[in-house]
Amino acid sequence: MKITMAHGSGGRSTSELIGSIFGKYFSNPVLDKMEDASVVEGSGRIAITTDSFVVTPLFFPGGNIGRLSVCGTVNDLLMSGAVPKYITFGVILEEGCDTEDLEKIVASAAETAKEAGVIVVAGDTKVVEGNGGMYINTTGVGFVPEGMDVSASNCQAGDVILVSGHLGDHHAAILSTRMEISNSIESDNAPLREMVDAMKAAGVRLHAMRDVTRGGLGTVLHEFAQSSKACMEIREKDLPVSPEVKGFCGLLGLDPLYMGNEGKMLAVVPAEDAETALSCMKNSRYGENAGIIGEVSHEKDGSVLCHTPIGGVRIVSELIGEGLPRIC
Ligand code: MG
Asked: Is the pTM of this model over 0.85?
């Protein structure tokens, strides 16, 4: 079945669509009450984040816009040190959108939410004229434990920088699909709940965390360097990039340092906690290729330096512009 303007009328077609797809997969005691606003439990410091997802194509190797829309928001909550609890799911459908596709996307979002330990507490559906497209907005709410203080401004000289796995996978997967290049590259879109929970449980002092998304690792390192007024020094030989993505980047002249992921994170921790953090990452789902990639110093405050395999040092420049839109 195709979505028509009637599905956005607010009448019977709308309620049938909501019941048969959204209600079916997102069902939980809070949402099922179908009130104008959900009332939920919680206290203390609240973390809130919102993100809109406009990726094309809607399905790509390794994932889809539904899984992505949950991962993106849950990971942002996790990076603030919060424990994710609730998520909202607003969808804008273009006329002509296939309901079978919509159902697959919603089912995938529901499965990802379950894995990430969040429940969907509110949602909205609108239909607009168009060409079968779909856009999703998710807002996440989490609670920050007592004493937790994770911030891009907390990086200190002597701290160690870790990344949780291969760079550029999501970006390369989307580009390959769009350019109809056939290869085995898959998006890494994944919720990082298990990994962050493991580091917290092991008592790792998490100074700064950020998920590596649009703009890539280079962009996150710049944000850390500027917020912390410190220098982020990385070693090129330690940057994890899969052979497939390395080959793909070589072919197109792309730099994995600026390519987006949707299931990788950067963590900055005191040197004494680095090995524990690394083993937590490596033993978690999605973290098998994690590695230590550098250290924080005061060599050149506000900058990112990269040590090359032949013993040189280059300044990693900030990404100017973004030539590759709609990867998330
Ligand atoms: Mg983020």
From this structure: yes
